[in-house]
Amino acid sequence: MIVSLNWIKELLGDQASSLPEVEVIADTLTRIGHEVEEIRTTSTLPDSVIIGEVLETQKHPDADRLKVCTVRISESETTTIICGAPNVAAGQLVPVATPGAVLPIHDKEGKPLKIKVSNIRGVESNGMICAMDELALGEDHDGIMVLNDEVTASDIGRPFAEVCGLMGDTLIEVSLTPNRPDAASHQGLARDLCAALGLSTAWSFSSRGGNDAKDEWRPKAQQSSNKEHVSIELKDGACPRYVARWIHGVTIAPSPLFVRQRLESLGLRSVNNVVDATNWVLHEMGHPTHAFDAGAFESGTLRVQRFDNDVLFTTLDHVERTCPAGTLFICDGDKPVAIAGVMGGLESEVSDQTTDILLESAMFAPSSIRKTSKALGLQSDASYRFERGADPLACTFAADRVIELIKAWAGGEVSAEIADVSGIQEYEPQAIEFDTALTTRILGHTIEDDVQFDTLTSLGCVVDNSASVHPPSFRPDLTRPIDLVEEVGRLWDYNRLPEPSVQQAFVPQPIPQRESYIVACASACMRLGYREIQANSLIPKEDAQRAIDPALVIHTLNPVSSEATSLRPTLAIGGLNVFQRNRNRGVHAARCFEIGHVYRRTDKEGKGKGTWHQGIEERTHLWMGVTGPATTADWAQAESTYRFDHLKRDLLGVLRVALGSSVQVHELSFQMDESNPLISTIHAQDEIIGTFTELGRKERSSYDLESPTFMVEIDLDTCFEMWSHSTPTRAAEVSKFPSIDYDFALVVASNVTAGTLEQIIRDAGSDRLHDVQCFDVYEGDQIAKHTKSLAFRCTFLDSTKTLTFNEVEDEIKLILNSLKDKASAELRT
Amino acid sequence: MKQKVDDARQQIEEAVLDSEEALESFRLTYLSRNGLFSTLFEEFKALPGPEKKEVGKPLNVLKVFAEQKYAEAKENLEDAREAQRTATDDITLPVEPTALGSMHPLTLVRHEMTQLFMRMGFTVADGPEIEDDFHNFTALNFPADHPARDMQDTFFVRKGDFVRRSDQAEDRSDDLVLRTHTSPVQIRLMKEQQPPIRAIMPGRVFRNEAVTYKSYFQFSQVEGLVVDTSITMADLIHTLVTFAKMMYGDHIEYRVRSSYFPFTEPSIEMDVRTSSDADWMEILGAGMVDPNVLRAVNVDPDVYSGFAFGMGIDRICMLKYGFSDIRTLYENDLRMLSQFEHIGGVR
Predict the structure, then answer these.
(1) B286-307 average pLDDT score
(2) Is there a contact between A828 and A789 (Cβ–Cβ < 8 Å)?
(3) Is the pLDDT of residue A740 over 90?
(4) What is the mean pLDDT of the segment spanning A278-305?
(5) For A452-480, what is each residue's pLDDT tens digit?
(6) Residues in chain A closer than 8 A to B345 (CB atoms)
(7) Which one of A480, A490, A526 has the shortest CB-CB distance to B101?
């Protein structure tokens, strides 16, 4: 909200002189919860812009579109001014910038425009007759300003700004919090400011809490005479009160200049003298009112009601809207004329032809207004305030004030009739039992009772002797003792709280293992030279649906863009997108990892590991990927690309951390997908812990990747579960005796995997079989077709003695027999 | 025989072993299996006793001498060869440094913050990123249909797509949300555990906001929660100031101002600046846990009180490392990320 400092000063009257400088005002507002975002100043027009009268206009002898005007600029003085405006005419009272005046607009060089005596095509011009934009009073440049409605001939020669009440101002932009509807007005903010500065706030209360409020709620004037022939029917609890006033014979015209200037400086559009009066009061007191063309009410009944069906309705911004069933309307009989508390209708709006006004000053329930405003995607100054909670007692005050302004700006006859209908008979003011000790308990510092109660009183609360506090009707946020503590603390200033005198002694709770586990896994990747990335959790729908069964993909109902519609079911997509983006920026080599959440739907019953909400699985994954050259060519080495074993080696290293001692590397198995040999699942303890993928040619090209690309994605939730069964690391004795290596080469059918052979060897070997490695793989002319040869090295080790060759040979025999039995493996000779 | 040994001695002494070839020829001539010493020792075996006595010692001495001469010469030659540098023995040849891995700057900052809070006795808690309305809003005192919900633009997710696709009703009450803050973890923690509680909740959160240089639809937060029998606003401010000084340096100035969050009452925000002529930077929101929140998780607000705070990791990361555009953080340009190799991971 933009706040005019001039307006604040006007509201403060005599106290205005006690206000500190604007920086202090801004700091104070910020400190008490109304954060100041920007301060701007507008300048006052110089006194050398005066009121003049156009006495005569003649065509310029040498320019078709210019006129030579004779202008009276004081009782005794006239001067000649050249003017190009099409509307200039004799008899007009106009603002004249006399030579020497510096205007608040810029010339072509960006400097403030200074008026000089000039010669325009042979005729001397002694100043400028100004249009609105030239005086920074608006956008209008269609013609010069004509002031005949604003000033009189006796003003000729006097400073224009002074005569019209146009003052330079300081505009303070404040960011309001949603709990403070009362602060959405100059009066409300000024009240908080005065309370914080220790100035009197008595001027600001048109209503207060306590028993006064009960009286104020009771309708002042019963609708008895019905001279206006409109009876009011409240058909819905969402409108607890409706006040209507009438004023006849108004003259619709632009508002006085100072009104237009102020409204526009606050970012509002000046409409006409009647609508401007309602906006003025809204920004002055905070209560929204609405002016109807009284002629719109033909049926004799103004009804506030809802409909069971959708309603097509054109609002005064010329937009036809489908208002959902249940929208609260102001109706002429059953014909909607305004969306209650949100926006009026085009048909009933105040137009140039309007002569009679029905002024509405009502109260609407916040949730009803909010639902409508949300459903229509339409927020107005009125709905903003109603949905946060307007002052229920303000209806009559606001109506009085608007009527006063309409009468002043648009004339007319105020009807003696006041319709004031209340849907609820009694207003029950809030009463809060307040123990000031709560303030000490919450703030950690004792503030004297007097100070606390004075603070609350300055904000409009009524404090009973029994320490029962009645908050004012304009503070819907004050309902509990804790709310009063905040009021006291806020104005007392939290920055003054002393450091706690007693430091709490606490026993720190252990850090969950999972926290350090995740860090350890990330560090393991980093130890291997991988670079961490953080990709988007939200990805394009098509990408997600390509990765898993489309029915399992979770979409957001209100995506921010087509690039971010769906929750990632795997980390791989984000990783490959990073590869692609870098590749397209010329970075080909990439070696990356990411740890993050992945999401999918599940039909698993109940909640369990990775499932916080039934039907949704959310798990933590670790992704590693490599692409581009593994080594770049230089004087010492050739360029090389990645092979699967590069990533497999790194993966096994990371799994040493991720699985701890619960699973040994040789207890992992890799199983190729039967339909796609480029994808393998990784198994540990009969569970799938991840997927190892070589990117196929087509997939590579869809990500612009030329080089072999490998990636692996591990479910860290499953791994953590296994890891948590690890035995703590102990420094175990290492054998002091040498090991013996035994090499042999096997010939097996091509479809027998190395993993199968390794497993047979390990199963057949005794405890002394320490390690099994494959050191050569061959297929080719030297052995039979459809066979391949694998050479294994078995390492034997005994922790109690030096093994003899004979002992090892016995073990090897068993191993070779087992290989022959289970895999038809022959020794290669 | 003696003459042969004498001749050999003279030849051996005179031999010049200054090249590979000379050395090899020396070895072949004297020391190899068919060399002179083999021959001489064969002959020596056949000698009669007295002559053996006369020749034996000089022959052995000569053989040791020859072997030493050979070994020395070989050592010298190898030293000479080692000292001779080829073109590829040039240490000034440029090479690429071995790529070290690196942590993402967001991870670095998150861990720095986590470590600071751990020093202050906080533990760490986590929870899901897809949440229900209760944990993300209702339990945190966001009334339904309240403008406070506008403070956090929310992504919604249909809960039941998979299980009840046939249900046509537009019932949104069952919808899940992408958590807009990590506060739902506070709710989960308080549901699981009675006070005292002293924990932080780092994690990724989501807001349905237009992507610009200063806002992104996902970002990371660290929130904190302390609940015990006598926790006060003074404790809160002291904790925050201690953190801010550790994070930004002892010299910073700070200010606390009133604010509004549905889940805290009173609510505050804190600004810091590095000097009295610098601009204030908002770094966090905080407050005393609202009694309604405590009640929602069955903690008695008449017995316990607590404070909570929350700050954006992305924003602190941008300040710390000089990022001017939040999008850069999620772009993952490897040239950008490689700069963080200099930092030895998380500490």
Answers:
(1) 96
(2) yes
(3) yes
(4) 93
(5) 999 999 999 999 888 899 999 899 999 99
(6) 523, 526
(7) A526
Q: Which CATH homologous superfamily contains domain A513-535+571-724?
A: Bira Bifunctional Protein; Domain 2 (3.30.930.10)
Residue B196: asked if its preceding bond is cis (omega within 30°), the reply is: yes
Token pair recorded at residue A71: 């202008």
- Is residue A207 within 8 A of residue A393, CB to CB? The reply is yes
CB contact under 8 A, A532 and B145: no
Global pTM? 0.87
Determine the residue type at B147.
P
- Which of A692, A731, A729 shows the shortest CA–CA distance to A520? A729
Give the model confidence (pLDDT) of B85-98 as tens digits: 888 888 999 998 88
Q: Is the pLDDT reported for residue B117 higher than 80?
A: yes
Q: Do A636 and B124 touch (CB under 8 A)?
A: no
Confidence of residue A63 (pLDDT cuts 50, 70, 90): confident
Strands (E) across B5-161 are located at 123-124, 130-132, 156-157
Cβ–Cβ below 8 Å for A537 and B218: yes
Contact B305 A441 (CB under 8 A): yes
Pairwise CA distance, residues A814 & A816, whole Å: 6
Residue A544 has pLDDT above 70, yes or no: yes
When pLDDT is cut at 50, 70 and 90, the band that residue A609 belongs to is: low
DSSP classification of residue A533: -
The amino acid present at A226, given as its one-letter code, is N
Compare CB distances from A531 to B114, B209, B338 and report the shortest one's residue: B338
Query: Looking at domain A2-43+169-208, which CATH architecture does it have?
Result: 2-Layer Sandwich (3.30)
Find the radius of gyration of the CA atoms of chain B.
Answer: 41
- At residue A633 the predicted structure's pLDDT band, cuts being 50, 70 and 90, is very high
Distance in Å from the first CA to the final CA of chain A: 91
Which chain B residue's Cα is nearest to A513? Answer: B124
Q: Does this complex have an ipTM over 0.90?
A: no
Q: Decide: helix, strand or coil at residue B328.
A: helix
Q: Closest by alpha carbon to A762, among A649, A666, A662?
A: A666
The per-residue pLDDT for range A698-734, each reduced to its tens digit, is: 999 999 999 999 999 999 999 999 999 999 888 988 8
Structural domain boundaries in chain A: 2-43+169-208, 49-164, 231-422, 446-496, 513-535+571-724, 740-827
Report the alpha-carbon distance of residue A737 to residue A770 in Å, rounded.
13
Say whether B125 and A512 touch across the interface (CB within 8 A): yes
Angle between helix A186-197 and A449-458 (nearest 10): 160
| Number of H-type helices and E-type strands within chain A | 21, 41
Lookup: tokens for A513: 């293992």
Q: Specify the CATH number of the domain A740-827.
A: 3.30.70.380
pLDDT in tens, B268-290: 999 999 888 988 999 999 999 99
Query: Is B101 in contact with A558 (Cβ distance < 8 A)?
Result: no
Q: How does strand B281-289 pair with strand B264-273? A: antiparallel
Nearest Cα of chain A lies from the Cα of B226 at a distance, in angstroms, of 11
Token pair listed for A518: 């995740």
* Contact predicate A348/A335, CB 8 Å: no
Q: Which of A379, A459, A554 should we substitute to test contact with B (largest number of B Cβ atoms within 10 Å)? A: A554
Among the four given CATH numbers 2.40.50.140, 3.30.310.10, 3.40.50.1980, 1.20.1250.20, the one describing domain A49-164? 2.40.50.140
Q: Supply the CATH classification number for the domain A231-422.
A: 3.50.40.10
SS3 A484: helix
Structure tokens at A639: 């360029």
CB pairs under 8 A between A and B: 260
Lowest pLDDT segment from A274-288, A338-352, A463-477: A463-477
Give the total residue count for chain B: 347
Residues of A in contact with B291 (CB under 8 A): 480, 482
